[in-house]
Amino acid sequence: MKNVDVAFKLDGSMTFFSSLSQKLKDVAPSRVVEVGWAVTKTEASLIWDEPTLFRRDLPKPVSAKSVEACPAAIEFDARHFVVPCPVDIQLRIGMDDGKRPTLTNAAGLKSTIRSKHLNKMVALVDRAEWRHPDRPILQFITPYIFLADHPVYINQLPPFLHYPESALPGLQICGRFPIHIWPRHLMWAFEWHDIGKDLVLRRGQPWFYVRFETNDPTHRVRLVEAELTPEVQRYVDSISGVTSYTNRTFSLFDRARARRPKQLLVKHK
Q1: pTM of the model
Q2: Could you tell me which residues are beta bridge partners of residue 210?
Q3: What is the mean pLDDT of each run of 10 residues along the chain (269 residues)?
Q4: Is residue 51 part of a domain?
Q5: Are residues 53 and 9 located together in one domain of the fold?
Q6: pLDDT of residue 3
Protein backbone atom coordinates (compact mmCIF):
# COMPACT_ATOMS: atom_id res chain seq x y z
CA MET A 1 0.00 0.00 0.00
CA LYS A 2 2.83 2.39 0.89
CA ASN A 3 4.50 1.76 -2.47
CA VAL A 4 1.22 2.53 -4.24
CA ASP A 5 0.83 5.79 -2.25
CA VAL A 6 4.40 6.84 -3.08
CA ALA A 7 3.86 6.11 -6.76
CA PHE A 8 0.65 8.13 -6.70
CA LYS A 9 2.35 11.06 -5.02
CA LEU A 10 5.28 10.99 -7.44
CA ASP A 11 2.94 10.84 -10.40
CA GLY A 12 0.92 13.75 -9.03
CA SER A 13 4.06 15.80 -8.44
CA MET A 14 5.29 15.15 -11.96
CA THR A 15 1.94 16.26 -13.39
CA PHE A 16 2.02 19.43 -11.27
CA PHE A 17 5.56 20.37 -12.29
CA SER A 18 4.86 19.60 -15.94
CA SER A 19 1.84 21.90 -15.84
CA LEU A 20 3.82 24.61 -14.03
CA SER A 21 6.65 24.35 -16.56
CA GLN A 22 4.22 24.79 -19.46
CA LYS A 23 2.61 27.83 -17.81
CA LEU A 24 6.04 29.42 -17.29
CA LYS A 25 6.85 28.86 -20.95
CA ASP A 26 3.58 30.52 -21.92
CA VAL A 27 4.27 33.69 -19.91
CA ALA A 28 8.06 33.83 -20.37
CA PRO A 29 9.26 36.18 -23.13
CA SER A 30 10.58 34.44 -26.23
CA ARG A 31 14.27 34.78 -27.06
CA VAL A 32 13.34 34.99 -30.74
CA VAL A 33 11.31 37.74 -32.38
CA GLU A 34 9.59 36.89 -35.64
CA VAL A 35 9.67 39.42 -38.47
CA GLY A 36 7.64 38.92 -41.61
CA TRP A 37 8.66 39.74 -45.15
CA ALA A 38 6.48 39.85 -48.22
CA VAL A 39 6.59 40.88 -51.86
CA THR A 40 3.49 42.81 -52.81
CA LYS A 41 1.67 41.96 -55.99
CA THR A 42 3.72 43.22 -58.88
CA GLU A 43 4.53 42.33 -62.46
CA ALA A 44 7.25 39.66 -62.79
CA SER A 45 7.31 39.13 -59.00
CA LEU A 46 9.48 36.02 -59.45
CA ILE A 47 12.57 38.19 -60.01
CA TRP A 48 12.44 39.32 -56.37
CA ASP A 49 14.24 36.73 -54.22
CA GLU A 50 13.63 36.12 -50.55
CA PRO A 51 15.98 37.79 -48.04
CA THR A 52 18.54 35.38 -46.60
CA LEU A 53 20.68 35.39 -43.48
CA PHE A 54 24.22 36.60 -44.16
CA ARG A 55 26.77 33.77 -44.23
CA ARG A 56 30.46 33.66 -45.08
CA ASP A 57 31.70 30.99 -47.48
CA LEU A 58 35.04 30.26 -45.83
CA PRO A 59 37.27 27.20 -45.37
CA LYS A 60 37.52 25.57 -41.95
CA PRO A 61 39.83 27.66 -39.76
CA VAL A 62 43.26 26.21 -39.01
CA SER A 63 43.56 27.88 -35.61
CA ALA A 64 41.10 27.84 -32.73
CA LYS A 65 41.95 31.53 -32.33
CA SER A 66 40.89 32.37 -35.88
CA VAL A 67 38.82 35.52 -36.41
CA GLU A 68 36.24 33.19 -37.93
CA ALA A 69 35.63 31.79 -34.43
CA CYS A 70 35.39 35.19 -32.75
CA PRO A 71 32.01 35.29 -30.93
CA ALA A 72 31.68 39.07 -31.34
CA ALA A 73 32.24 38.83 -35.11
CA ILE A 74 29.83 35.88 -35.40
CA GLU A 75 27.18 37.74 -33.40
CA PHE A 76 27.54 40.83 -35.61
CA ASP A 77 27.31 38.91 -38.89
CA ALA A 78 24.27 36.95 -37.72
CA ARG A 79 22.24 40.16 -37.39
CA HIS A 80 22.22 40.90 -41.13
CA PHE A 81 19.93 39.64 -43.88
CA VAL A 82 20.85 39.98 -47.54
CA VAL A 83 18.51 41.19 -50.28
CA PRO A 84 19.90 40.41 -53.74
CA CYS A 85 19.62 42.62 -56.79
CA PRO A 86 16.73 41.50 -59.06
CA VAL A 87 18.11 42.62 -62.45
CA ASP A 88 21.24 43.41 -64.45
CA ILE A 89 21.53 47.17 -64.89
CA GLN A 90 24.05 49.58 -66.37
CA LEU A 91 22.91 53.18 -65.98
CA ARG A 92 24.57 56.35 -67.25
CA ILE A 93 23.63 59.85 -66.19
CA GLY A 94 23.80 63.05 -68.22
CA MET A 95 24.28 66.35 -66.40
CA ASP A 96 24.28 69.16 -68.99
CA ASP A 97 24.34 72.68 -67.57
CA GLY A 98 20.90 74.16 -67.22
CA LYS A 99 19.15 70.99 -68.32
CA ARG A 100 17.30 68.31 -66.45
CA PRO A 101 19.54 65.28 -65.69
CA THR A 102 18.85 62.25 -67.86
CA LEU A 103 19.27 58.52 -67.29
CA THR A 104 20.37 56.20 -70.09
CA ASN A 105 20.33 52.42 -70.29
CA ALA A 106 24.04 52.21 -71.13
CA ALA A 107 23.91 48.48 -71.95
CA GLY A 108 21.80 49.30 -74.99
CA LEU A 109 20.73 46.28 -77.03
CA LYS A 110 22.73 44.02 -74.71
CA SER A 111 20.56 44.96 -71.76
CA THR A 112 18.52 42.10 -70.29
CA ILE A 113 15.81 44.52 -69.16
CA ARG A 114 13.74 46.57 -71.58
CA SER A 115 14.11 50.33 -71.13
CA LYS A 116 10.37 50.89 -70.62
CA HIS A 117 10.37 48.42 -67.73
CA LEU A 118 13.55 49.91 -66.30
CA ASN A 119 11.84 53.30 -66.29
CA LYS A 120 9.10 51.80 -64.10
CA MET A 121 11.66 50.64 -61.55
CA VAL A 122 13.96 53.64 -61.23
CA ALA A 123 13.39 57.38 -61.00
CA LEU A 124 15.58 60.44 -60.56
CA VAL A 125 14.78 62.55 -57.53
CA ASP A 126 14.06 66.20 -58.30
CA ARG A 127 17.23 68.32 -58.19
CA ALA A 128 15.82 70.56 -55.43
CA GLU A 129 15.66 67.51 -53.14
CA TRP A 130 19.31 66.44 -53.53
CA ARG A 131 21.67 66.69 -50.58
CA HIS A 132 24.38 68.21 -52.80
CA PRO A 133 23.90 70.15 -56.08
CA ASP A 134 26.43 67.96 -57.96
CA ARG A 135 25.30 64.58 -56.61
CA PRO A 136 22.11 63.27 -58.22
CA ILE A 137 19.89 60.91 -56.24
CA LEU A 138 17.91 58.10 -57.81
CA GLN A 139 15.47 55.64 -56.30
CA PHE A 140 14.55 52.08 -57.15
CA ILE A 141 11.06 51.08 -56.10
CA THR A 142 10.96 47.61 -54.54
CA PRO A 143 7.91 45.50 -53.61
CA TYR A 144 9.48 44.38 -50.30
CA ILE A 145 7.46 44.85 -47.12
CA PHE A 146 8.70 43.97 -43.62
CA LEU A 147 6.35 43.87 -40.63
CA ALA A 148 6.13 42.68 -37.03
CA ASP A 149 3.71 42.42 -34.11
CA HIS A 150 6.37 43.32 -31.53
CA PRO A 151 8.35 46.59 -31.40
CA VAL A 152 10.95 46.23 -34.16
CA TYR A 153 12.94 48.83 -36.08
CA ILE A 154 14.42 47.98 -39.47
CA ASN A 155 17.76 49.33 -40.68
CA GLN A 156 18.46 49.31 -44.43
CA LEU A 157 22.19 49.23 -45.09
CA PRO A 158 24.67 48.82 -47.97
CA PRO A 159 26.22 45.32 -48.35
CA PHE A 160 29.43 46.26 -46.53
CA LEU A 161 30.22 42.70 -45.40
CA HIS A 162 30.68 41.62 -49.02
CA TYR A 163 33.78 42.62 -50.97
CA PRO A 164 32.58 44.18 -54.25
CA GLU A 165 34.11 43.27 -57.60
CA SER A 166 33.99 46.97 -58.44
CA ALA A 167 33.04 49.94 -56.31
CA LEU A 168 29.82 51.82 -57.02
CA PRO A 169 30.20 55.46 -58.13
CA GLY A 170 28.39 56.73 -55.06
CA LEU A 171 26.68 55.86 -51.81
CA GLN A 172 23.52 54.03 -50.85
CA ILE A 173 21.24 56.16 -48.69
CA CYS A 174 20.35 54.25 -45.54
CA GLY A 175 17.18 54.38 -43.45
CA ARG A 176 15.60 53.28 -40.19
CA PHE A 177 11.92 53.08 -39.15
CA PRO A 178 9.53 50.97 -37.00
CA ILE A 179 7.98 48.12 -38.98
CA HIS A 180 5.46 47.28 -36.22
CA ILE A 181 3.85 50.67 -36.92
CA TRP A 182 5.07 51.74 -40.35
CA PRO A 183 5.33 48.73 -42.73
CA ARG A 184 6.06 50.58 -45.95
CA HIS A 185 7.76 49.49 -49.16
CA LEU A 186 11.53 49.63 -49.12
CA MET A 187 13.27 51.88 -51.62
CA TRP A 188 16.86 51.59 -52.81
CA ALA A 189 18.15 55.16 -52.89
CA PHE A 190 21.54 56.01 -54.37
CA GLU A 191 23.54 59.23 -54.27
CA TRP A 192 25.70 59.46 -57.41
CA HIS A 193 29.09 61.02 -56.53
CA ASP A 194 31.17 60.21 -59.62
CA ILE A 195 28.80 61.01 -62.48
CA GLY A 196 31.51 60.12 -65.01
CA LYS A 197 31.12 56.44 -64.14
CA ASP A 198 28.20 54.12 -64.90
CA LEU A 199 26.12 52.58 -62.14
CA VAL A 200 26.42 48.82 -62.68
CA LEU A 201 24.31 46.34 -60.72
CA ARG A 202 24.24 42.58 -61.26
CA ARG A 203 21.33 40.22 -60.66
CA GLY A 204 21.89 37.94 -57.68
CA GLN A 205 24.63 40.05 -56.12
CA PRO A 206 24.03 41.55 -52.67
CA TRP A 207 22.04 44.76 -53.18
CA PHE A 208 21.42 45.82 -49.59
CA TYR A 209 21.15 44.45 -46.06
CA VAL A 210 18.37 44.68 -43.52
CA ARG A 211 19.08 44.53 -39.80
CA PHE A 212 16.52 44.62 -37.01
CA GLU A 213 16.42 46.22 -33.56
CA THR A 214 14.17 44.85 -30.80
CA ASN A 215 13.47 46.00 -27.24
CA ASP A 216 15.96 43.44 -25.96
CA PRO A 217 19.23 43.53 -27.96
CA THR A 218 20.00 39.92 -26.98
CA HIS A 219 16.96 38.64 -28.87
CA ARG A 220 17.48 37.03 -32.26
CA VAL A 221 15.23 37.68 -35.24
CA ARG A 222 13.63 34.90 -37.25
CA LEU A 223 12.56 36.02 -40.73
CA VAL A 224 9.38 34.36 -42.00
CA GLU A 225 7.39 34.83 -45.18
CA ALA A 226 4.21 36.77 -44.46
CA GLU A 227 0.82 36.86 -46.09
CA LEU A 228 -0.66 40.30 -46.67
CA THR A 229 -4.30 39.88 -45.69
CA PRO A 230 -6.82 42.37 -47.13
CA GLU A 231 -6.87 44.20 -43.78
CA VAL A 232 -3.07 44.46 -43.64
CA GLN A 233 -2.90 45.47 -47.30
CA ARG A 234 -5.33 48.34 -46.65
CA TYR A 235 -3.14 49.46 -43.76
CA VAL A 236 0.00 49.34 -45.92
CA ASP A 237 -1.83 51.31 -48.63
CA SER A 238 -2.77 54.00 -46.11
CA ILE A 239 0.94 54.53 -45.39
CA SER A 240 2.19 54.40 -48.98
CA GLY A 241 2.82 57.74 -50.61
CA VAL A 242 2.37 59.93 -47.52
CA THR A 243 5.78 61.52 -48.19
CA SER A 244 4.22 63.24 -51.20
CA TYR A 245 1.83 65.09 -48.90
CA THR A 246 3.90 65.86 -45.78
CA ASN A 247 7.54 66.10 -44.71
CA ARG A 248 7.06 64.99 -41.12
CA THR A 249 5.98 61.40 -41.70
CA PHE A 250 7.22 60.28 -38.28
CA SER A 251 4.65 62.64 -36.73
CA LEU A 252 1.98 60.28 -38.10
CA PHE A 253 3.13 57.31 -36.01
CA ASP A 254 0.55 57.85 -33.26
CA ARG A 255 -2.27 58.00 -35.80
CA ALA A 256 -0.92 54.91 -37.58
CA ARG A 257 -0.69 53.06 -34.26
CA ALA A 258 -4.34 53.84 -33.51
CA ARG A 259 -5.46 52.49 -36.90
CA ARG A 260 -3.12 49.50 -36.94
CA PRO A 261 -4.73 46.06 -37.27
CA LYS A 262 -4.34 43.97 -34.12
CA GLN A 263 -2.25 41.44 -36.07
CA LEU A 264 0.10 42.45 -38.89
CA LEU A 265 2.18 39.30 -39.18
CA VAL A 266 0.25 36.41 -40.68
CA LYS A 267 2.55 33.60 -41.72
CA HIS A 268 2.32 32.43 -45.31
CA LYS A 269 0.95 28.89 -45.51
Answers
A1: 0.85
A2: 81, 156
A3: 48 55 54 95 88 91 86 94 96 85 90 89 93 95 96 98 93 97 96 96 97 95 96 94 84 93 94
A4: yes
A5: no
A6: 52
| pLDDT reported for residue 214 | 96
Residue 89: Cβ within 10 Å count:
22
Beta partners for residue 151, in sequence order: none
Same domain, 16 and 134: no
**Residue in 80, 236, 14, 68 with CA at minimum distance from that of residue 147:** 236
Number of domains in the chain: 2
Question: Which residues are CB-contacts of 118 (< 8 A; sequence separation ≥ 6)?
Answer: 87, 89, 105, 111
Instruction: Judge whether 265 lies within some domain.
Output: no
Domain interval for residue 120: 32-259
Same-domain check for residues 163 and 58 = yes
Q: Are 178 and 151 in contact (CB under 8 A)?
A: yes
Helix (H, G, I), strand (E, B) or coil at 112: coil
